[in-house]
Specification:
The protein is of the alpha+beta class and 300 residues long. The chain folds into 3 domains: 5-94, Rossmann fold (3-Layer(aba) Sandwich); 103-118 and 189-274, D-amino Acid Aminotransferase, Chain A, domain 1 (2-Layer Sandwich); 122-186, ATP-grasp fold, A domain (Dna Ligase, domain 1, 2-Layer Sandwich), CATH 3.30.1490.20. The protein has 9 helices and 13 strands. The protein has helices at 23-41, 76-86, 96-103, 107-113, 132-139, 165-178, 188-192, 235-246, 286-299, and strands at 5-11, 46-50, 61-68, 91-93, 122-124, 143-148, 158-161, 181-185, 195-201, 204-212, 227-231, 254-261, 267-273. A 5-stranded antiparallel sheet has the order 11-10-9-12-13. A 4-stranded parallel sheet has the order 2-1-3-4, covered by helices on one side. A 4-stranded antiparallel sheet has the order 5-8-6-7, with helices on one face. Helix 1 packs across helix 9. The two termini are 19 Å apart.
Length: 300
């Protein structure tokens, strides 16, 4: 069958339509429209759909662009099957290989092996016979954060200290039976200074956002009341973010590099988001065109 579209922008059902009453939904819709218009300006025939659209023939588009597919994590088995099927029919941006690599936090070890300074981390593999107290004793960590290796939206993310280890022990043992976890020393600068999200398209930095947790919390996500503001990145931070993207197993067409100042005062990577990161196009509209141009080059 002939291709009818150049790019399909993927969202999930909740964000298909604009909202006049819900600012969050409106922002999602508006940012996807910025990308849509940038692609159309370059002469690319574009459509926006939910990734689980049952009626669309994915072989009729040259590429699909993951944008706001934010229910994929809650429906991961279904999404995984869909991913496997659709990658045979069209080009995925980013690719299936990079998505599967990025879903599991073990990717941080690959980046570390490629010379990227990551947040100090200890990986606890599924089925490990170890207690939280033993781990805190081994590393001599007083305050830590525990989270799953496959996670989203701060699922099963806990702030631990010597006083609350006992109350989290049975939950930890339950989790570790079923999945790998990671333990990291608590990073005090994320609370005091925030975490910086660096947007990188086709290997080039465009803009940055500073995310801060609300008072009394340590999670910077807006789901937990975190705030955002525009941020002017230093040349050192820009070089670091672009190096993180170069260290991937292949160059992603879009990336969000989340960095912070670690307890030793060094720039460190907390997360590299390559699947469906919020990219704050509304804060820097030319970045939508940067992405569109990269997509056009790839399709050409």
């Amino acid at each position: 069958m002939n291709t009818l579209y150049d790019v399909v922008i993927l969202t999930d059902n909740r964000y298909l339509n604009d909202s006049k009453t819900d600012t969050y939904k409106h922002n999602v819709y508006y940012e996807d429209r910025l990308v849509y218009h940038a692609l159309e300006q370059l002469g690319l025939k574009t459509l926006r759909l939910a990734w689980d659209d049952m009626f669309f023939d994915w072989s009729t588009t040259k590429a699909v662009l993951f944008r706001t597919t934010w229910d994929y994590f809650d429906r991961f088995d279904e999404f995984s099957v869909w991913l496997e099927k659709v990658t045979k029919q069209t080009t995925l941006l980013n690719s299936e290989a990079i998505i599967r690599w990025n879903i599991d936090k073990h990717y941080l070890l690959d980046l570390q092996n490629n010379g990227i300074h990551i947040a100090e981390s200890h990986f606890i593999e599924q089925g490990a016979q170890v207690s939280l107290t033993q781990l805190h004793d081994i590393f001599n960590w007083k305050e830590t954060v525990l989270k799953p290796c496959v996670s989203g939206a701060a699922r099963h993310t806990y702030k631990l200290n010597r006083a609350n280890l006992a109350e989290h022990e049975s939950l930890f043992q339950e989790l570790i039976k079923n999945e790998a976890m990671m333990l990291q020393p608590f990073q005090y600068n994320i609370v005091s200074k925030g975490e910086v999200s660096m947007m990188v398209f086709n290997g080039t930095f465009t803009h940055a956002i500073l995310k801060k947790a609300k008072d009394g919390d340590f999670r910077v996500q807006d789901d937990f009341g975190g705030s955002i503001e525009d941020y002017t990145a230093s040349s050192e931070e820009i070089a670091f973010a672009e190096a993180c993207v170069r260290a991937c197993l292949e160059q992603p067409i879009y990336a969000r590099v989340d960095i912070f100042e670690d307890n030793q005062g060094r720039i460190a990577l907390s997360e590299l988001e390559l699947i469906e990161p919020e990219l704050w196009f509304r804060r820097h509209k030319p970045s939508a065109m940067m992405l569109a141009k990269g997509i056009k080059e790839k399709l050409d």
